[in-house]
Amino acid sequence: MNVARRIGALATLACLGITGTACSSSSGSGSGGSGDIKIMAIGVMQSSALSFPDMGAALQANVDSINAAGGINGRQLKLEKCNDKDDPNTAVDCARKAVSDKVVAVTEPYEPFSQQLLPFLQAGHIPVVYGTLVSTADGTSPNSFPRDAGVPDKYAALALELAKAGCKTVGAVVVSNPNNQLGATWIGRGAKAGGATFVQTSVSVDQADYAAPVAKLISQGAQCIIPDTNPDQGAKIVAAVQQSGKTVKLGALTAEFGASQLQALGSGAEGMLLIGQEFLPTDTNVPAVSEIVQGMAKYQPSVKLEDFAGIAGWAGISAIKQVLQAVKGNVTAQSAQTAAAAITLDTGLYDKVSFAQPGPFAEYPRVTNWGYLAWTVHGGKAVLRSPDFVDLPSGV
Fold first, then answer.
1. Which H helix or E strand runs over 28?
2. What is the pTM of this model?
3. What is the DSSP string of 261-313?
4. Selected residue with higher pLDDT from 387 and 155
5. What's the maximum distance between 2 C-alpha atoms anywhere in the chain?
6. At what angle do helices 150-164 and 178-193 cross, to 10 degrees?
């Protein structure tokens, strides 16, 4: 469990024209003892349902800042960005591309299909540095070096904090897919740890109306409601709660509610409890966040740092930089994996993480960072409740 805290200091034909794969890269070549060092970022950067324009921009901005400062021991980083388009088959193509291109490390700012990716990357001995936990594979694969406990931690912490705030029955609107079902399991664990009851109702990913699911939860006694859904669905659930006319406290993840969403919701989001595992773009008093804002303004001035995805993208590159700087001898995927296993990663944006010992939850031994942050929404803005990370109790 992490105890040191601080605010200051993240072989295929795929991508060669095959339909469904979208990749881009900066200039350069080589990944051995000389030349550029090739790395890859895989994630949902743009799709018909979800788009995170600041993710790709933040990834590139940090690479550009590192290269401008001399790179890694005098060698430039070459970044390949592979957009999985929110499609598991395309995500697998990205992983195969990473293997065929002999990248030395992969980062995943927001990748829902890691379960499918990791076997390919593991076979290629490529470490995944600063991904997050969305599947069992993230927490068990030897080439996985996750920045945080992802879905389990955030949802358990959210339910626990709501229960501590007085919510006796925690309700959740849950999308019927594996990731959100995992979230629901941990909402139940967090609620129980806080002495609360848990009730849930299921919806589809393309649910048209949320009035009925919200009404069902309220009829079951829910005093607070959590959207355990895709990022584009949370605001619709908040609107349904507001339209119900009932006094219900809302709790959500920062991944679902960026600054623009909170402003658009207005009074509907007032008092909402937010839980996340990284500082927000609005937390500019945090030195590492201020660094990103300045870096984006310099290297990607046309793109605004908007949400968690940009933070995660920048942090992932910072983590890879720390890993590569710790490599002894020739820089390869295997030597990068060895270095990642031996150091403590500290980007100043997430809690510190080290892989020298297994994590506190037996089902996810690779996950050592179970720290989270909490915010309360006031006047359309997320206000940090504490400047420090809180560890999820190991008994949850």
1. none
2. 0.87
3. HHHHHGGGGTT-EEEESS--TT-TTSHHHHHHHHHHHHH-TTS---SHHHHHH
4. 155
5. 65
6. 40
